[in-house]
Design a protein that fits this description.
Chain lengths: 755, 160, 83
């Protein structure tokens, strides 16, 4: 059923989230908040070298430390055969996942795990780690993506022969694969262009920066049953990967989803759980593991750093006739950067006849990249949206008009083969053009920048159940970890379908043994896909309730209608019966067929793509190089905002992560390839005093493929900020920056060079 | 390592516990006293997720030793509400949707309490700078600042 | 007959010997995968495991039953996730 044009009573309002009180009183239970009797503390030994062969690991002295109950290395994990897969939210080989959580023959980045201990106190575990004797043969390392591609670069994997080139190379290299996307004839297009802009853009790796470090509590019981308490973006993922990496049966593992303190893609795969389970198996006790903040920076996957070349050609009237991009993304120590989406997203917003994008997936000696909010898109759009602004300057056309002129519409075919349908880009552009931020004059000395962003959003597999309890209250459970308030939206959709108030619906996140398989919380999919499942489950319950009312009144079921939480006879011919509410029907559930519940599993298709436009005013202090964000507006097509506050929250949060990416966040390495800034002091995320209020403008263009019109919203907002700020800096100072982050030293250097 | 016996007033109750001399107050609160509301985000005083009020002063409990709590008065997130009655700060955080994952929320609420204890009428700028020691990665701070300003108005009796 | 277009150069071209556009007889996605595997060993498996398809412009990530009409255009693209 489709509720898009209905008079909605709950969906679209702003109730307090059901888990809210627990979260503001400190009662909510996150990954590290539980204990178990006899629990041991697990800690991991990490490589101090960026690249080295492991000659030997001697754990005997560590095992002798009082309090130590188990020590594990790769020898305690089965060898996993090479198996290409889609791990978490990106391509990865399972053998690489296994090696990533526990190195076998080589360490491939500073921070690479190679041994772990479990002891009765954290201090004893630390003491034991220090006594593990590892003999390394230190090897030359390479980190920068261009350097990793160059001839003569240290090669990380002897068996890496670039895929996607013909003929296949005979020598191994660090280029895992090459991908290409073509539409029309770019060379011919450029020949037709009146104006061409070209540029080279570089970005540094940035971390998702979730405040909660990875943690888990794992118990391997004597009967072979495993229980894991951990936060993640997918407890079914934890179960599947832990089973695979340890050679266990999935049915023997039960994962309880703890509340999660941020993920943004970085918790769509695992690091600790198999290690904790292995330690528990060896010691016979529950094992708790917690990454330190340094471990998080040194040992978990940030996103790619990149270098990009771009060329765009247009006619004098602003029609873009050709676009070309070459992208080189760091994958980290193992293959699997978001080069695919990176190649697809940059030009997806525009109707361009001739497009040619080439992408390289390149390994180097740093942690394996994990997904980070719209993986690949923020990087590629930094180049595209900056180049388009430069093009607008050269053409003498307003940058927003340039986008409007070339905007993709319903029916536009992208360069990667998808035809846009049910998109809201035109509407976003129209709202942007009329918005007071855009129409207001720029304060003297300040600069204004604008940039656009796109993300596909995905659907996928979700399961949900709706139960009517004996007193008429409702429990709705799904398999989707709640990372940003989705629990509230689930309850609201159920309440809307049932016709009751949202406070009568209790929403929970069920563990892996209590509900059907549900894919990750990521890809902006939960409100769309899990929302679809929970809506369909509620609809099944409504059909069931109508049948029970019909049975109670002894009339045909077609003569029953459901309205405002009650069954009514449909019209006076059906009979003069008093309406039956949920409580009344639940009371007689046993007599009308048994318990009232429905479970629905879906593989949701038809996820609606999202488009965003960000406007940013900056003031640049040329002496210090400091950039102040004076005003920021983020406009986005959000389908239907089920709970508008949480939709606004996604937009504001993504925008501020983008501000950090633009101005201050980066990995800084020393001469040995070790991270110099593995902490929040020197890895500078935005703080409250760094940003103004972020005005989030919700443009509702319903997605007809979802019962309420919902569209994914979480990822689009991180795509435009970097170029919006870069363009604003350009308009304030004339400086054309092409390297992220645009931190004070870089702005000073550019100012000095320009002078 | 011999454990030390410490007595302190935590959330209005006299509490005593044993902790190791090198254990931080954060670890002591979480692992010994059982108050897991204060969170470890960095253990180096840079994120504020472990914020508590100690003898009237806002501190990062990861930068204080458990033994330093001897004789002190401590308020953690667990002591902000009055039994089942939420503090206006907590209520406004919920109304404004000033939390998404909620991990930074305990520290932010405690830091806000410390702010409003000292300055009942902060400007937006004063609020932002006071809370600059509390990292939030989910919200972009917008709704948090609105919640704090609104809570301050409630506490001044200007609104509900 | 439905036409398949390889959008991502990737390893697909290696498996098809350089061919980037060709016709198929399949009428559902499942039959397409089987046909691709038969004609270009390894390609069907790769499509099923690590790729998404756009059928007449719409993305399908994994649906055996998705229908291919006689003039359908199927584009093979990398699987899309998120963060």
């Amino acid at each position: 059923m489709n509720y898009i044009d209905s008079n909605l009573k709950v969906v679209g309002t702003r109730p307090i989230r059901p888990d809210g009180i627990d979260k503001v009183t400190g009662r909510a239970v996150y990954s590290a908040d539980t204990r178990a009797a006899g629990m041991l503390w697990g800690k991991i030994l990490r490589s101090p070298h960026a690249h080295a062969r492991i000659i030997s690991i001697d754990t005997s002295k560590a095992e002798a430390v009082p309090g130590v109950r188990a020590v594990v290395t790769a020898a305690d994990f089965p060898e996993i055969a090479s198996e290409e897969a889609f791990v978490g939210e990106g391509p990865m080989n399972f053998r690489d996942l296994s090696t990533n959580i526990m190195a076998r023959t080589k360490v491939l980045y500073e921070g690479h795990a190679l041994a772990a201990v479990a002891a009765t106190t954290p201090a004893a575990a630390d003491e034991a780690l220090a006594l593990i004797d590892v003999k390394y043969e230190v090897l030359p390392y390479v980190i920068d993506v261009d350097e990793a591609m160059a001839d003569g670069a240290p090669v990380l994997h002897d068996d890496m022969f670039t895929a996607g080139v013909n003929p296949k190379p005979s020598k191994p290299s660090n280029i895992a694969k090459v991908v290409t996307f073509k539409k029309g004839d770019a060379d011919a297009g450029f020949a037709q262009a009146d104006i061409i802009v070209e540029g080279r853009y570089t970005t540094k790796p940035v971390h998702q920066g979730y405040i909660e470090p990875h943690a888990c509590l794992a118990t391997y019981n004597p009967d072979g049953q495993v229980t894991i308490h951990a936060s993640s973006q997918g407890h079914f993922m934890i179960r599947a990967y832990t089973a695979k990496l340890l050679g266990l049966d999935m049915a023997d593992i039960r994962v309880n989803p703890a509340e999660i303190g941020g993920g943004f893609g970085g918790k769509t795969l695992i690091y600790l759980e198999p290690v904790a389970v292995a330690l528990s198996r060896k010691s016979g006790k529950p094992v708790k593991m917690q990454m330190t903040r340094e471990d998080v920076f040194r040992g978990s996957g940030p996103t790619s750093g990149a270098s990009m070349d771009i060329k765009i050609g247009a006619k004098k009237d602003g029609t873009i006739v050709a676009a070309k991009q070459v992208l080189r993304f760091q994958a980290g120590a193992f293959a699997g950067s978001p080069i695919g989406p990176g190649c697809m997203c940059g030009f997806a917003l525009y109707d361009i006849e001739n497009v040619d994008v080439l992408g390289y997936d390149v390994v180097s000696n740093r942690p394996k990249v994990a997904a980070y909010r719209a993986p690949g898109a923020p990087i590629t759009s930094f180049a595209v949206e900056s180049a388009l602004d430069d093009l607008a300057d050269k053409l003498g056309i307003d940058p927003l008009e340039l986008r409007i002129k070339n905007a993709a519409k319903n029916g536009t075919k992208t360069h990667y083969g998808v035809t846009h349908a049910n998109i809201g880009f035109e509407q976003v552009l129209a709202v942007t053009k009329a918005h007071p931020h855009w129409t207001s004059p720029v304060a003297p000395g300040n600069g204004r920048g604008i940039a656009m962003g796109f993300w596909f959003n995905i659907g996928g597999e979700s399961s949900a159940t709706v139960h009517v309890n004996e007193d008429g209250s409702v429990t709705a459970a799904t398999g989707s970890p709640d990372i940003g308030g989705s629990r509230a939206s689930m309850g609201m959709m159920v309440a809307e379908v049932l016709g009751i108030t949202v406070d009568r619906v209790r929403t929970t996140v069920a563990d892996t043994a209590s509900i059907g398989f549900t894919f990750l919380t990521g890809g902006s999919r939960v409100t769309f896909a899990t929302g679809m499942a929970v809506t369909q489950a509620a609809e099944k319950v409504v059909e069931d309730l109508k049948r029970r009312a019909a049975q109670t009144w002894d009339i045909p079921v077609e003569a029953v209608e459901w309205r405002d939480g009650m069954a009514y006879p449909a019209g006076s011919n059906a009979g003069a019966f008093e309406p039956l509410d949920l409580a009344a029907l639940a009371l007689k559930a046993g007599r009308t067929g048994g318990p009232i519940n429905a479970e629905v599993s879906v593989n949701a298709q038809g996820a609606g793509a999202g488009f965003g436009a960000h406007i940013c005013d900056v003031k640049v202090d040329k002496e210090t190089g400091h950039v102040e964000i004076v005003r920021y507006t983020a406009l986005q097509d959000v389908g239907k905002a089920i709970h508008p506050s949480y939709v606004e929250g996604q937009i504001q949060g993504g925008a501020v992560q983008g501000i950090g990416w633009a101005l201050s966040e980066e990995y800084i390495y020393n001469a040995k390839g070790q991270l110099d800034n593995p902490g929040f002091l020197d890895y500078r995320c935005p703080v409250a005093s760094d940003v103004p209020m972020i005005e989030a403008v919700l443009v509702e263009v319903p997605n007809p493929r979802h019962p309420f019109g919902a569209r994914g919203v979480g990822e689009v907002p991180i795509v435009p900020p970097m170029a919006a700020i870069r363009n604003a800096i350009k308009h304030a100072t004339g400086l054309q920056l092409t390297d992220l982050p645009m931190s004070p030293p870089k702005i000073r250097a550019a100012s000095d060079a320009a002078a | 390592m011999a454990r030390q016996h410490v007595t302190a007033t935590i959330n209005g109750e006299e509490t005593d516990f044993l902790c190791e001399t090198q254990q931080t107050l954060l670890d002591t609160l979480r692992d010994v006293v059982g108050l897991t509301g204060s969170k470890e985000g960095c253990a180096s005083g840079d994120c504020g997720a472990c914020s508590i009020i100690m003898d009237g002063r806002l501190v990062c409990s990861c930068l204080v030793l458990g033994v330093e709590a001897e004789g002190s008065t401590i308020t953690t997130i667990e002591g902000i509400a009055d039994g089942e009655k939420l503090h206006p700060i907590q209520q406004k955080f919920l109304e404004h949707a000033a939390l998404q994952c909620g991990f930074c929320t305990p520290g932010l609420i405690v830091a806000t309490k410390a702010l409003l204890d000292e300055n009942p009428n902060p400007t937006e700028t004063e609020t932002r700078y006071w809370l600059a020691g509390n990292l939030c990665r989910c919200t972009g701070y917008d709704k948090i600042i609105r919640a704090v300003m609104d809570a301050a108005a409630v506490m001044r009796g200007e609104t509900v | 007959m439905p036409t398949v277009v390889l959008s991502s150069g990737g390893s697909c071209r290696e498996l098809t010997g350089g061919l980037t556009t060709f016709e198929v007889e399949a009428t559902t996605f499942r039959r397409l995968v089987l046909e691709l595997e038969q004609r270009f060993p390894g390609l069907g498996k790769q499509v099923e495991e690590s790729m998404a398809v756009a059928i007449d412009g719409e993305i399908f990530q994994d649906a055996y039953g998705a229908v291919l009409k006689p003039g359908s255009e199927i584009v093979l693209i990398p699987k899309i996730g998120g963060g």
